[in-house]
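Lecture notes, part 5. Sequence design as translation. It can be helpful to think of inverse folding as translation between two languages: the language of shapes and the language of residues. The source text, in structure tokens, appears below.
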């Protein structure tokens, strides 16, 4: 049996540390058929719809374990004075990655203008997740293009 690294990227919101834990706890409290973190991980990894965007498109959620994911970086969309602050490296952290309903590097995004601007994209996430994240969640620091590799 051979093993390999598979690379992934996309437009996403990233949860780590206390925000990841808060999200998992709220999912277990609020969602039917979810008993514990293990059942949530099964649902996320098998793309069983837990949430849907207002467009009806199921939300794609990945749980990344620091044991299997490497080189995870987020390039945030909201500009900062120092451009180096727009790159966040998540080395050695367990993460939850919530991909947007439309990926911004596709032909459809270019032609159909799927989001009017960054604030429209951010508002989609707020509408979807506001009941599952703390009130002080740093939206602008966790929405962007993510890239990572997973050992398969």
């Amino acid at each position: 049996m051979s093993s390999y690294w598979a690379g992934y990227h996309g437009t996403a919101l990233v949860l780590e540390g206390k925000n990841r834990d808060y999200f998992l706890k709220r999912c277990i409290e609020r969602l039917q058929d979810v008993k514990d973190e293990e059942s949530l991980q099964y649902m996320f990894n098998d793309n069983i719809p837990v949430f849907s965007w207002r467009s009806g498109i199921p939300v794609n959620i990945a749980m990344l374990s620091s044991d299997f994911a490497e080189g995870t970086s987020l390039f945030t969309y909201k500009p900062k004075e120092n451009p180096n602050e727009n790159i966040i490296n998540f080395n050695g952290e367990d993460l939850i990655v919530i991909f947007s309903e439309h990926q911004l590097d596709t032909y459809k995004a270019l032609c159909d203008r799927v989001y009017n601007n960054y604030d429209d994209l951010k508002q989609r996430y707020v509408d979807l997740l506001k009941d599952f994240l703390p009130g002080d969640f740093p939206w602008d620091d966790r929405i962007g293009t993510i890239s990572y590799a997973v050992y398969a």
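The translated text above is only one of many valid answers, since several sequences can fold into similar shapes. Helices lie at 17-30, 37-45, 107-112, 118-129.
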